[in-house]
Amino acid sequence: MKTEELKLIIKEGESLTVEFKEKYTSKINRDIVAFANSKGGLLLLGVNDSGKIVGEILTNKMKSEINTIARNCEPSIHIKKIQQTEEIVVVEVAEGDEKPYSCSAGYFRRLDAVTQKITQREVRSIFRETDTISFEDITCNDLSLNDILFKKVKTFLQEANTSYKVSKANMPSFLTSLSIYRKGKISNAGALMFASKVKRFIPHSESILGAFKGRDKTNIYDRKDVQDDLLTQFNEAETFLKKHLNVRSEIKGFNRQDIYEIPLDALREAVVNAIVHRNYSMKGTSIYIGIYDDRVEIENPGGLPDGVTKHNFSKSSVRRNPIIADLFHRMGKVERMGSGIDRMRNLMREAGLKEPVFEMGRFFRVIFYRDPRYSLKVGETREKTREKTREKILRLMQENPGVTTKELTGMVGITSKGIEWHIKKLKKEGFLKRVGSAKGGHWEIIR
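The chain above was modelled as a monomer; its predicted structure follows.
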């Protein structure tokens, strides 16, 4: 491994495929097993948990012991390479072909940036489909390095809080370090995260966001379809939720704090959970987020992953898409060790709200109930506001039948899309009609 590549890996920190160890000990057998049971990875001996290089020297004795440790695992594990690079000993472990693997301490796997022990009872279900390549790991046909958008890569680095500079020259090394580029090919996970036009390569990668009047899907008043990279989908979902939820302000000390009726952290957890656990091989499906008068629903295609049941899904941490989960973990969007379900429950309890309801079938759905003390008033208040807006529009048209949509936007104080929406409603309900052309015509109030 070249020094430049090693510096990049250390800058990015521990991950699904990277583990730091200050010194060599025989306990690295757990990490070797974990890597073999996951996607393979690098053990960097001589680097502490914070990424500081403390140094380690590779000796013939150490090299022999590491190989013996790997051979003594069950089945035997292949160590691809052991080498000294600068002051660091780099141990490269290949992903295993005969999963699951174990050592004298038991069975282990990688979960985000953590080596986690698993019980023998979990082993069979977790590795039941080890012969099947996951969707995120499949090569994305026709996707080349030229289709990777630099802006998206830079945004990822900013979110991951790393100062590493990406260029065309080091792009392959960077993508390789993220486990999304192998043998000159980019995986579906790479397309989902960084493709300039995600829709071109994975058309069904989208989130559909909807806000409804009432408690069902009969009357929709706002919708947004997001067909872009996964980070954009996450950010757009958060913006949409903020737009349609009630918020109050509290003054604490000298600062004003906005408090949403449903804790934003709980909603963020559910959104990232939907992205990380979505079954991307289910074509013709989407992530759905629905906001109703009494609740918010967040739904993703794919039920519980193998190894998780209705009884243990809040305790067992099984990632359907470990690479995508690792990338979101690097950006600080995913909690370690699968604490998300309990975190959502705790946040809702602390806010004095009902715990979220989880529905599991072919789709996985999380339901957050809004505070019943004002959830119905929301719809009433919204309708009163709309009535006043329409009355104002009709009055302005009566005073000036030639008034334009642009002029109404400034007079009423809402967006042009909002004006167009109200005009369409007024026409449909028989209050208004347009006489003549769009430019030379005028408005006529019917009733």
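The CA atoms of residues 8 and 164 lie 7 Å apart.
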